[in-house]
Write a structure and sequence with these properties.
- The structure is a single chain.
- The protein is mainly α.
- The chain has 21 helices and no strands.
- 82% of the residues lie in helices and 0% in strands.
- Helix 2 packs antiparallel against helix 18 and helix 9 packs parallel to helix 15.
- The longest helix is centred in the middle third of the chain and has 30 residues.
- The chain is globular, with a radius of gyration of 21 Å.
Length: 351
């Protein structure tokens, strides 16, 4: 059974982007040829929302924030890139590419880059042989900070496009993030207490797989409901795609430059890079649907088709990134001041 769960989860993870693409096409076809029937699906949205959000939260390790002594340089980098630069970059890109289109697209695009950290950050970091402990803390810390900072940024950046009630959005975040997070924590602790950590690790791959199935259903329903609008305005998808293609690689490059400047090692560099670049689809879709409407969720629904290939490109070039980071470390070690400290401090050198 555990092996089957591992294979099933791995299959979905490897083919996430094309499956999302198929759901988009099927939803558009269904909504185009059976619009009245498609609209009947809208009341059922809370069901796949639950299956998308709750299983994802079971894998969140709140205790890792307290247990791991995360570098202050990583914390500063994640805070600056995820919660300052990303929202401002989203607003700037949307202002250029989505100006004149439906304002809900701008709202959705800003939300997409403001909600941090896909649950896959830890997995991608592990694939690239980075420090997964750092990735776990980045994901958990970003979730906790996002509870406060997402509504604040949306109020600051989005109110020029639509009327936004910051308290209503805070309530949505309570329902969509906080309650599932607490339920996930209780579930995780209950499984570990009753069956032990080995059993939990054996069934853990099932949680992201179930979450992905919920996301597929949400994407299908959303596309079906908004099919006629999207088909009539294909420029929506084109502009969203261009925005993501520009913003995501830029965030990763800036993360690398920051890592090199402050002297992070490769393990923390790649964890931070994925933590800044891999944005969360599920929570963004849920917030967009429940707060603004289907069209605002279009950027989040389309993003996996670009984000997943970009994550693979980063993985492909991880060895080169390692060499570049390590060359920076070697150059720093060769500085005259560093050589002098080493020669005067043999005990430190032994460590």
């Amino acid at each position: 059974m555990p092996d089957r769960l591992q294979r099933y989860s791995s299959l979905i993870r490897r083919h996430l982007a094309p499956i999302v693409g198929v759901m988009i096409v099927l939803g558009l076809l269904y909504g185009t040829y059976a619009p009245d029937s498609a609209r009947l699906l809208k009341p059922f949205v809370p069901i796949p929302l639950f299956f998308m959000l709750y299983p994802m939260m079971v894998g969140i390790h709140l205790e890792m924030v307290e247990r791991e002594a995360l570098s202050a340089r990583v914390i500063v980098g994640v805070l600056a890139l995820n919660f300052v630069l990303s929202p401002l970059l989203a607003a700037a890109v949307a202002g250029v590419l989505l100006s004149g289109l439906d304002p809900l697209l701008t709202v959705g695009f800003i939300l997409k880059l403001t909600v941090p950290c896909s649950g896959m950050v830890v997995a991608w970091t592990g694939f690239a042989r980075g420090r997964t402990e750092t990735a776990l803390v980045i994901v958990t810390l970003s979730f906790l900070l996002g509870i406060v900072l997402i509504p604040v940024w949306m109020y600051v950046l989005v109110r020029v496009y639509v009327t936004i009630d910051i308290w209503l959005m805070a309530q949505k975040i309570l329902i969509i993030i906080v309650l599932p997070l607490l339920a996930g924590l209780v579930t995780r602790q209950g499984i570990i207490r009753r069956y032990g950590m080995p059993k939990f690790k054996a069934i853990k791959p099932a949680f992201p797989a179930v979450s992905s199935l919920g996301m597929f259903a949400i994407v299908f329903i959303m596309m079906a409901v908004e099919a006629q609008t999207i088909i009539a305005h294909l420029e929506y998808v084109a502009m969203i795609g261009l925005g993501i293609l520009f913003a995501y690689p830029l965030l990763f490059i800036l993360s690398l430059v920051y890592s090199r400047l402050v002297g992070l090692d490769f393990g923390d560099t790649i964890a931070q890079g994925y933590g800044v670049t891999a944005k969360n689809h599920s929570i963004t879709i849920a917030l967009a649907l429940t707060t603004f409407g289907e069209l605002a969720a279009l950027p989040a629904a389309f993003a996996p088709m670009i984000q997943i290939p970009l994550m693979l490109v980063i993985l492909r070039y991880a060895p080169r990134i390692r060499s570049w980071i390590e060359s920076g470390e070697a150059a720093a070690a060769d500085q005259p001041g560093n050589q002098e400290v080493e020669s005067d401090s043999p005990t430190i050198q032994e460590h």
